[in-house]
Every structure is written in structure tokens, then in C-alpha cells.
Amino acid sequence: MSTPARLVQILTNKGSLPPESPWRAAVQGVPRELFLPDTFEAGGHTFDRSGNPERWARAVYADLPLITQVNEGVDLGEDAYQRPTSSSSMPTVMLDMLGLLDVREGQTVFEAGAGTGYNAAWLCHRLGSGRVTTMDVDPGIAEQAENNLARAGFTPRVLCGNAEDRLLQGAPYDRILATYTVPEIPYAWVAQAPRGRIVAPWGGGLFHYSFAVLDVSDGRAEGRFTGNPAFMHTRSRPGGGGRLRDFLHHEDDGVPGRTTVSPLRVTDDPDALFYVDLAVRDAWHFVGKADDGSGESTLWLFSHDKKSWATAEYVPGDQADYEVEQYGPRRLWDEVEAAYRRWERYGRPGRDRAGLAVDCEGERVWLDDPSNVIASRSRGTPTRCGDLR
User: Could you say which protein family the record assigns here (predicted)?
Assistant: First the structure.
């Protein structure tokens, strides 16, 4: 059986959709198949409706994220890195996000990132189309989302453009959510939800598996981090990633060194990586594990601008230190190690002890108390609080 009822059963069995959930009727009442193309990818496999309709339908009504676009729809050739740029999100994650949003009847919602339109359809089913606005930066995706929604019987406001840079049609809103990861919360969202709530996947290239859940009052948003979402990054500031050969260069010019911090102590601890990411931005990492049973690993670090890289070698056993190599204007491992040591000095706190405050001047991450700021970023272009249009 591959129907909405099957998806309801799966989500119920996983504990994500209890009988009293206000989203149960939406999951049951919105056919996911109306929001998906005839071909998509999931888990490294391609599903083709014409070639195997039953297999395609099983994937549609599984609890899986389904990739519907790569490389912004541009064919870069078979040898190019296939970066996912649009998808139908995993239903359990959608429910997590909507639960954090705490939508109430009669409220209005703005969604940044229309994607296939499936998430907007759930919102329309519960709130009514007139209370939902969704937006996508990609004209083709926005048009397809609008068509998908119409086919399912919903008519929300569908916009095309950058949701991060200005007040939008229909503002103010009671709730704002993003279906892609942002490295910082746009002030436009704070301004257009003056007494509302914002839920957005948040983080940089090293760690971006947090929902920022912020309540807005008096031109300021504040809240904490939770969850474990995995979303694509905003197109305005991609989060890194790619093939090593596209980032690795000047291999003979790397500067050797040693460290007493095991690279896996950093990458295998999500709390450590969260705090390291606060300090080491515009970089991403990859852990390559040996396939010979040795248990050895290499941590690769790359700057987004491709100018700097670093490696840290892990070998199991009682080691006092580990080999490091770095190249470029940034010493990426040194940045990571310094941030990791800072986290240790904080007492190795969990991510749940951190909070985020956002206003027109920038954003600040605090530990335990809003007065204890441990990381801050000013906005690139100074903005007077009353100037946003």
C-alpha cells in the first residue's frame, strides 16, 4: 500500500504523529505524489515513475527526504559534483519543525523556501490557503510549487525572490519558518513577525544541524537551539561541500605540524562541533575513513573560497599527538583547535545551554544567560531598526 494512509501509519509507528496531533489530518489529506516529479533521488538511488511505478510510489509514501533538483537545475555534466538544491523534506523532520512553530488556528504563516509545495500544502490544509505565503528564490521551483498546490486544491500566495532581504507582501506574519539552513537569521524575518515566532535551520559549514526557535518582541528575537535537522543551505551563502579534488591544491606546499587534540574528538561530538562552528565560519569538513580495517581516519578542512585547506590524521591507540598539515592564508586546523579548547574551558557544555538573540544590529550567541555572549556577528550593512522596507 502506497498512499497517504501508509505514511500516516509509518509516522504513527515512529511516534512522530500521535493520534492527537493537529497535523494528522493534513498528512492524511494531502497526497504527496502530487508534489513530486516523475524522477527523483533518495538515499543514493534514482526512482523513475515510468520505469517502476510501484517502487516510485513506495518511496513517495516513505519517511524519506526526496531530492528533486541538483545544481540549481543546470546540467554541469556527469562528472560534476551533484549538489542537491531542492527537495521534498523528510516528513518526520517536517513534523518536528511544524511542532516547534506552534501554529494556532487563525494565524498567518510565511514559509521561506517553497520547494515542492508539500509543506505549504500541510499548512494550507490546517489554516486555509489565505493564511499561507510561501516563497522560493528559483523561478522554476516557485512556479512548479504553485502548480502542485493548485493540483491539490490549495491557493496560497506563492512568491518568487530572496526571502532574506526585505519585508514581503502580506507582512506582518504570526509565524515564519525556513525550509533551508541559514548561517544567520535575516532581520527582515524579525521585522515581519513583530510578535511572532521564527523557526529556521541554523548553522555554518562545519555544523548546521540545529533549529533556531526564536520568539519576537520589540524588534528583537531570542530563543534556543534544538532538534537535529539536515537541510540544504541558503543559495545566498552556500554551506560548502564538494569533491576533494576541487578544493585540494598545492599538496606539496602544506605546512606540517602536530596537535594533541584528536580530530575525531572534535568531529564525533556534535556539541563540540556546534561550538567550534561558532568560531570557524566559511569552512566545511569531511572525514575520510581507511578501508583497510585499520581504523585510521583523515579529517579534511576546506575554506569556502578554496584558498585554504588542512588535514589532521587519526590513528587508533595511545597517542600523545597527531599529524597535521595546513595550507593557505587561513590555518584551518589552528582555528578549529582554538575553538575546541575554548569549548573545553566553558566546561564542555551541550548545545541546549546555548541561545541566540537577533536584532537589527546583528546576532549574538550566548551561553546559559543572554548576558554571557560567546559569539557575535554584526550585519555587513548597518541597518537602522526603522529603515527596513
Answer: Belongs to the methyltransferase superfamily. L-isoaspartyl/D-aspartyl protein methyltransferase family.
